[in-house]
Amino acid sequence: MRNLIGYDRLASVYAILEWLMFGRDLQCARVALLDKIPSANQVLILGDGDGRLLTELLIHFPRAKVLSVDQSSAMLKRQDHSVSLVKAIDRIEFCCVDATTFKPERGKYDLLVLPFFLDCFDAPTLTTCLPNWLSGLNDDGAVYLVDFVQPESGYARWRGKLLLWIMHAFFQIATDLQHRELADLPDLLATLGWQQTERIDRNNGLVTSRLYVRSSST
Ligand SMILES: C[S@@+](CC[C@H](N)C(=O)[O-])C[C@H]1O[C@@H](n2cnc3c(N)ncnc32)[C@H](O)[C@@H]1O
């Protein structure tokens, strides 16, 4: 629960800070692959923050029921407000809990949405928690990952390193984030048996939107 107060404090200024650093790129990344997700009636979204992807998801999938898990009550309050504006409050359940202790109902969900959430954790924590979060998906379930990745080479790599360093330093001060290294999220998902089916990168390869299914289901 270390990040709780930090994210509560950040909730009201989160979108502005994001815009100052990345313009519209992160919001474009959040919605980039919504059209490619085949169907989603039961959705689990972890760490959606102020609700900007959640709202788009509810509009895009008008029959979907969503469980949104976030440890910050201030972020969830903003989600609640955004969801009521799109009149979808009857399709959403909020759960204010530390996701590292959260156990999803096994096999219940068609879609697991991870928007700039996995970057809150170091690789050892993800190695423990990711399989638990993924266990909520049914056999045909998909993972929608939107997050930062370290670009592979050249100018993009050095630029990415600098921006990631700045962000880690900021979140360390603002939320008591403990790690300074971004885990290799695509590699972790591949190791756990998930195969990428769609991908859009932006911001010089620093920001990625990816869709995954179980390797055996392609
Ligand atoms: C970096 S912000 C990303 C917010 C949003 N998804 C976005 O696209 O900008 C991380 C979000 O995950 C939540 N979070 C961080 N660690 C968490 C944890 N251990 N359990 C539950 N939520 C957590 C924070 O409260 C915050 O809303």
UniProtKB/TrEMBL annotation:
GO biological process, one term: methylation
GO terms of molecular function: trans-aconitate 2-methyltransferase activity
Domain Methyltransferase: start-end pairs: 43-141
CDD domains: AdoMet_MTases
Pfam families attached to this UniProt entry: Methyltransf_25 (PF13649)
EC number(s) given by UniProt: 2.1.1.144
SUPFAM superfamilies to which the protein is assigned, alphabetical: S-adenosyl-L-methionine-dependent methyltransferases
InterPro entries assigned to the protein according to its UniProt record, in alphabetical order: Methyltransf_25, SAM-dependent_MTases_sf
UniProt keyword terms in alphabetical order: Methyltransferase, Transferase
Protein name listed in UniProt: Trans-aconitate 2-methyltransferase
